[in-house]
Structure formats: structure tokens, C-alpha cells
Specification:
alpha/beta, Elongation Factor Tu (Ef-tu), domain 3, Rossmann fold, seven-stranded antiparallel β-sheet, 13 helices, 21 strands, about 25% strand, elongated
């Protein structure tokens, strides 16, 4: 919106309901326009227009409506969208989505005021993701690789260690050879106080905070603060990527809290609910968020997104994971059975997928044997899981020698390849070497997905014979 629109002042509030204030007699308010609400005692609060119909403007107040009276309150429409001062000074700091510091540090001094709704990337100038990002997590790097500019969500379940995994990836992730230009924007949406403390402590203690900017809203804040969190986080990511030439990893946790906040706002506006009570435009809304990622032709920087969401009741067909799966390029799925076995991170590789991985791995990108090893590990683990089912029916004693080797492989795969410490940062070579080590328990004739040249070059059995 241009600055030509002037500030307009109104004092006829017709209704206050939940986080919303209805102002009457407003004919020219714009969607997402910024509003200042002044109470009778002089206290000022901020809000935005979430709906405007004939003569009534619906304003959502960021700090909530408690204490606001229909009498003596003035509402000013400011004629511009919500802008936050954005700067590279935000790295190493913690802010709320309105740009106020949460870490007792100073306000951002030098910076640009940016509309947090952002500008979508023009599809014609998008560049295809091809560079590998090393997260240091074997189950991701080895089998479901993340590329620079990709959107790869993590699907978690309630009580699964998504927070720990998100923090570990934020600490470890890097584009090899570009370590100094790598930054993480971490958007924590509607998190509980103990989660907020965990992230803060983890980043401070590991020293990762220096390259992480934390944009955070808490669970007890009004729903609009939660819906603004990813917007502000991605606005900062866009600035760092496209103005400061950085490689930015944007981690948004938890998108389920974001969607619940959308639903809450939609219900208070009495909109007709869609599937699961969520608003019908949730798909559009999520797409607007997720599509703020990628690489742009002619720009050095990039934004890679890892949205993290909790699947209600572990249901992958629930609207939130379902719509997310449509918009993003794969998913990393956490699994309760693996978690119950004591495996961290409990990534179910058979339920996970990175649609772009094949374009960023192999010779000159990771290592020449990466594609073959990855295919072989997938195939062998899938067979191991099938064999477990068979063993449960006919008993292990009735299995063939080869099938027993597969059972052994399955356990090693989970305990050695998937499982790793929260501070264990494996480079891609280490990950592939572990892959070879566990593949070597299978008879060589079973390694049908790997070229003979690679077997001779990397298989532990041949290594001693050089």
C-alpha cells in the first residue's frame, strides 16, 4: 500500500470479541493494514485489519483485547502494512514477530523497514536447486538429501524429539565450502515456555547462536502473533539471502501451531469452516509461506526451508501434513516405533522422501558412490522390514541364511546409520562409509544396486586388499 493513504481516526467500536475489535463507519480500510488502538488511559496497542465489509472493519489486536472498552477508545488506521525493521544485526539475537527484542538486548539500530508479507519470487527467475546442504544427520544426508533452495518439511508426532532435531540441524547445517556465508533463521511459532528456554539455551551453549536469528512467539500469546511469526522470520531470511548474499536455512517450528492460530482467527470471524474446522484458504495460506523459499537467477544467496509440524494423532492424512506435502518437495517423517526403541533421531527413511535429492548428489557434489549406496540402503532396509514381518509369522529359525543376514542388516541400519548423538555431526563421507560398513554384512551378490567399480573401491572386503 502506498503512503498516500492518510491516517484515519475512529472511535465508534460496535463490538469486541476475542482478539477482535469491530469498528463501524470505516469505508476504506485495506486488508492487512496496520492499526493503532489507543485506550482511554493512553495505553497504545497495535493491530491489523483482518476483514473489512460494508462500513465495518475487523481489527485483530496483537496484544489482545483485554481492558479495551468500546467507550473512550480511539482506533487509527495507519495506511500501511505491518513493517518490521530488518537487519543482519538480528543474527545472534531473539525477537518477537513485531521486531521487539526478547533477549534484553537493544532494538535494531540500522536496518530496513520491510513489509513482512514479502514479495513472492517470480517463477521465471527461480533457479533449480542443485547444491547439497550437509545437515550432519545420516538419515537425511545419505538417503533424503536436502538441497539449497528446497522446501523439505519434517513430519513429527506429539512427544517425538522434533525440537532437538530442529536445534541440531540449525547448529550443524552448512553448504560445504561456503561455511562463512551460512545463516539460520529460526521461527518458533507459539512454543511453550520450556521449549523457548530449550532453544535459547541450546543455541547459546553450543555457540550456534552467532549464526542463528530467533523469531519467537509463545503459546499464551494472541493467535495473530503466531501467524505473524513465520512472516517476519521469512522477511529476515529474504533480506539476508537476496540483499546480503547469504545461504539461509529457515526452520519454522511448529506449523501445526500456525494452522491452529489460523483456525482460531477464522472461527472468531465466523467464517464457514473447511476440512477439519480449518479455514478453506489454509492451502493458499500455507503455500504463501512455503513458497517464500528458493534460489533466484543472478543472486548468490538462497533460502532453504525446513518447516516442522506435529501430525495430530500421528495421522499423515490430517489436513496440515496433507496440504504441506502437496506444496513442499518431500518430507522427513519421524516414527514412534523407532523412538520407542531408543533411536534418535527416529527418522523412518521408508516414509521419507526428498524429491530433489537426485540432482544434488554424486560425483563432484557429494561422492561418486552416493546414489548407488543410497538406493542399495533403501532397497535392503525395505527387504529387512519385510523379513521382520515374515519372521514374526514363521519364526526366525525357519528363515534362510540370507534372510537372517537381512534381519541383522535391519538392526544395524537403525542402530548405527539412523541413530546418532544430538551433538554428533557426521560429514557425508562418514555417512557413506557407515553405509558401506553395514551393507558388508549382506552377501555381495545382494548388492544389486551398486556398480561393481564402486564395490571394488569402497567395500570393506576389498579395502584391505589394496
Amino acid at each position: 500500500m502506498g503512503s498516500s493513504m492518510n491516517v484515519r481516526e475512529y472511535s465508534n467500536i460496535s463490538m469486541i470479541k476475542g482478539p477482535l475489535v469491530m469498528v463501524q463507519g470505516v469505508s476504506d480500510s485495506a486488508y492487512n493494514e496496520l492499526v493503532e488502538v489507543e485506550l482511554a488511559n493512553g495505553e497504545k496497542r497495535r493491530g491489523i485489519v483482518v476483514d473489512s465489509q460494508k462500513g465495518i472493519s475487523v481489527v485483530q489486536v496483537f496484544e489482545g483485547t483485554r481492558g479495551i472498552s468500546p467507550v473512550g477508545t480511539t482506533v487509527r488506521f495507519l495506511g500501511r502494512g505491518l513493517e518490521v525493521k530488518i537487519s543482519e544485526e538480528m543474527l545472534g539475537r531473539i525477537f518477537n514477530p513485531l521486531g521487539d527484542p526478547l533477549d534484553n538486548g537493544p532494538m535494531v539500530i540500522k536496518g530496513e523497514r520491510r513489509d513482512i508479507n514479502g514479495e513472492p519470487i517470480n517463477p521465471a527467475t527461480r533457479d533449480y536447486p542443485e547444491e547439497f546442504i550437509q545437515t550432519g544427520i545420516s538419515a537425511i544426508d545419505g538417503l533424503n538429501s536436502l538441497l539449497r533452495g528446497q522446501k523439505l518439511p519434517i513430519f513429527s508426532g506429539s512427544g517425538l524429539p522434533a525440537n532437538a532435531l530442529a536445534a541440531q540441524i540449525a547448529k550443524q547445517a552448512t553448504v560445504r565450502g561456503e561455511e562463512s556465508n551460512f545463516a539460520v533463521v529460526f521461527g518458533a511459532i507459539g512454543v511453550r515456555y520450556d521449549e523457548a528456554l530449550f532453544f535459547r539455551k541450546f543455541f547459546e551453549e553450543t555457540g550456534a547462536i552467532n549464526r542463528v536469528a530467533l523469531i519467537m512467539s509463545l503459546a499464551n500469546e494472541p493467535p495473530v502473533m503466531k501467524t505473524l511469526t513465520p512472516k517476519t522470520a521469512l522477511t529476515l531470511a529474504e533480506y539476508l539471502a537476496f540483499e546480503q548474499d547469504m545461504h539461509v536455512l529457515a526452520i519454522l517450528i511448529d506449523m501445526t501451531n500456525y494452522c491452529e492460530a489460523l483456525r482460531e482467527i477464522s472461527a472468531s470471524k465466523e467464517e464457514v469452516p473447511g476440512r477439519g474446522g480449518y479455514p478453506g484458504y489454509m492451502y493458499t495460506d500455507l503455500a504463501q509461506t512455503y513458497e517464500r523459499a528458493g534460489k533466484v537467477v543472478g543472486k548468490k544467496g538462497s533460502i532453504t526451508q525446513m518447516p516442522i509440524l506435529t501430525m495430530p494423532n500421528d495421522d499423515i492424512t490430517h489436513p496440515i501434513p496433507d496440504l504441506t506435502g502437496y506444496i513442499t518437495e518431500g518430507q522427513i517423517t519421524l516414527d514412534r516405533n523407532l523412538y520407542n526403541k531408543g533411536i534418535y533421531p527416529p527418522i523412518n527413511v521408508l516414509m521419507s522422501l526428498s524429491r530433489l535429492a537426485k540432482d544434488g548428489i554424486g560425483e563432484g557434489k557429494t561422492r561418486d558412490d552416493h546414489k548407488d549406496v543410497s538406493n542399495q540402503l533403501f532397497a535392503s532396509y525395505a527387504k529387512a522390514v519385510d523379513t521382520r514381518g515374515l519372521a514374526a509369522i514363521i519364526g526366525e529359525d525357519s528363515l534362510s541364511e540370507t534372510d537372517r543376514k537381512y534381519l541383522m542388516f535391519g538392526d544395524l541400519f537403525e542402530r548405527k546409520f539412523v541413530s546418532q548423538g544430538i551433538n554428533e555431526n557426521r560429514d557425508i563421507e562418514t555417512t557413506l562409509d557407515i553405509g558401506w560398513e553395514i551393507l558388508s554384512v549382506l552377501p555381495e551378490r545382494e548388492l544389486t544396486n551398486i556398480k561393481m567399480d564402486y564395490i571394488k573401491k569402497y567395500h570393506p572386503a576389498y579395502r584391505g586388499k589394496k
